[in-house]
Amino acid sequence: MMGIFGFEPTFLVGLEAVRAEHGPGLAALGGRHLTGFATVRFVEDGDWYAECPVVLNFDGVQAEICHSKFDELSISWNTIDLTAAISGWEWVELTPAWSSADERLEPFVGQVLREVALLEWRPSRRDVAAGTLAVEFVFDTGRFHIANALDENSIDLGDAHPEFVRHPLGSGAPPD
Q1: Domain residue limits, the chain
Q2: Tens digits of residue pLDDT in 128-150
Q3: β-pair type (61-68, 54-58)
Q4: Rounded CA separation 157/111 (Å)
Q5: Is residue 171 pLDDT above 70, yes or no?
Q6: Residue 150 gets which letter from DSSP?
Q7: What is the C-alpha separation between 72 and 18, in angstroms, rounded?
Q8: Residue 18's beta-bridge partner residues?
Q9: Confidence of residue 172 (pLDDT cuts 50, 70, 90)
Q10: Where are the alpha helices (DSSP H) in the chain?
């Protein structure tokens, strides 16, 4: 999918479906170091193509997070080969490639993940995005979450908007 070798997303909708399928795996990341990350950027201008998955590596466990449509979230594990070229993008004149350059995520590399949570958008007013999910990663030095930006990913730093309901999944000490 998307010309990304190994990427076969399974999109889920709703807190219960995502928590049941991926809650234990996300919780198990607690206590691990964020050792790297990758996003798809265009070689020619460095722009981020936010429709592709955000890949986070925690001491050898690779979490691949991708939002689609208004409410779909796919989390896959250790499937994407970041060394393989992205192919089949003849529809665009730019060259997509994996990149570990992102000023938002760089400060977290080397840090121990203290907690993981699912954030559920529950606004006080009617909102087409109600019920969408973000995945939050909490470190001693701060936090970020990967959210649904209505058919693509967003990476947001700091505390989530107050209309997100936080559903903690796990925290931990570093693994032995």
Answers
A1: 12-171
A2: 677 789 999 999 999 999 999 98
A3: antiparallel
A4: 15
A5: no
A6: S
A7: 10
A8: none
A9: low
A10: 15-27
- Of 127, 137, 126, nearest to 71 (Cα)? 127
Nearest Cα to 31, choosing from 55, 65, 57, 58?
58
> pTM of the full predicted structure?
0.92
**Interatomic CA distance for residues 3 and 134, integer angstroms:** 24
**Burial group, residue 134, by CB count within 10 angstroms (0-12, 13-18, 19+):** buried
The average confidence (pLDDT) of the chain is 92
Q: Output 1 or 98, whichever has higher pLDDT.
A: 98
User: Who's near 162: CB < 8 A, 6+ residues apart?
Assistant: none
The arithmetic mean of pLDDT across residues 48-68, rounded, is: 97
- Residue-wise over 26-53: b if at least 16 C-beta within 10 A, else e? bbbbbbbbbeebbbbbbeeeeebbbebb
Between CA 132 and CA 117 the distance in angstroms is 14
**pLDDT tens digit string along 88-105?**
888 889 999 999 999 999
- Single-letter amino acid code for the residue at 2: M
